[in-house]
Amino acid sequence: MKLSSLRPPRLRTQMSEEDHRSATWLELFYDLVFVVAVAALGHRLLVDHSWLGVAAFIGLFIPLWWSWASFTFYADRYDTDDLGQRLLAVAQMIAIALMAASISGDTADSTVAFAGSFLAARVVLLIMYLRAYFHVETTRQLVHGYLVGFSIGAMPWIVSLWVPEPWRYVLWAIGLAIDMATPYVMRRAQAMVPLSVSHLPERFGLFTILVLGESIAAVVAGLSSIGWEFNAAMGAVIGVITATGLWWLYFDNLEGSVVRRRSSQLKAWRPTTWIYMHLPLAIGLTASGIGLEFLVAQEGADVRWVAVTGIAISLAAMGGIHLATDREDHRTDLIQFQVRLGSAALVVLIGVAAGAWSSNTILFLLAGICFIQVGVDIFLRERSLQQPSTPT
């Protein structure tokens, strides 16, 4: 493709399910700005892990994740990687970079900057969908619904620019609720414009890798802050093992066929749940990375709840993803759902009981819980392969 060319958007998901589609270089470049933004959010939680700090962390993470997800949904259906799309993607990257820059601030000016940057990203997204509306006639009903819903969702954010805190945050929540409900309201139109069963799961997997990378960076930071003491070095090893266990549990079970509703038997809640469960998963993985940094730095059981809560949320979110997954052996998904929720509850119990335990003891138990689940998954997979297939 010549960079000077302008090509209209086309419906990319009209290709057959057997055709594999991978992320483009533009999408991978786009993700880089979110590496910076997630790192900024993680640092914010590291500095302030009070209940108000946690609330701010979650409140800022949601619009950041939604900005990424909204662009990903558009690109999954319409991305042609032409000059126009590249310029719009870069414009949105600039808006996200400004959101990331405002995350570290606690003043009213910084929250206004965050809201303004988020609005700029939404305006760019609306321009993308306007291109699709004019050029892809078969999806105009869906795109019209998106344009209306996202425009209404932007209104509270605009008003929030002139409203003091804490009402500013209330308006943000209202705007996000409208935004995130829009795809569900348009679910019937979406069913006629299915998502890609290869591209979209890959994109969500890449974002999960991005967040898990922050866990590895946090473990290294924790070790660097205390030096090469034996306990810290052992904690770093166990911390990496814990992060590996979380990676293993997610990616060994990544199945994205649920995003395409192939029949009336596949209810709308399944793809919706599969997609939206990745939000608490990303929040939990980011928080668990910061918690691992605390534990590797041997800061004791007083801050154990950051890692415990993050890992518990991550496991519970994976359980929701299992419950929504549409596979032939759905019984295995149900068992994994139960195992994930039970493990999340066990992690919480460890957090409650670990008042006087050492950081490495807590790390060892968390890593053990993750890899016991890996063993259960391997057993279930082998059992499923040994069972004779049901004749059709």
Question: How would you briefly describe this protein structure?
Answer:
Helix content is 75%, strand content 0%. α12 runs antiparallel to α13. The N and C termini lie far apart (45 Å).
Explain what the structure shows.
- This protein is 75% helix and 0% strand.
- By secondary structure, it is mainly alpha-helical.
- The chain has two domains: 23-191, no CATH class; 199-384.
Itemize the secondary structure elements and their pairings.
Blueprint: H1 25-47, H2 51-78, H3 83-103, H4 108-135, H5 140-160, H6 167-185, H7 187-191, H8 199-226, H9 230-251, H10 269-276, H11 278-296, H12 304-324, H13 330-353, H14 359-386
Query: Could you tell me the number of beta strands?
Result: 0
Low-confidence region ranges = none
Give me the secondary-structure category. Answer: mainly alpha
Strand percentage lies at under 5%
Helix tally equals 14
**CA-to-CA gap between the ends?**
45 Å
Percent helix, as a range, is over 70%
Number of domains: 2
Mean pLDDT: 86
Biggest β-sheet: count, sense, barrel? none
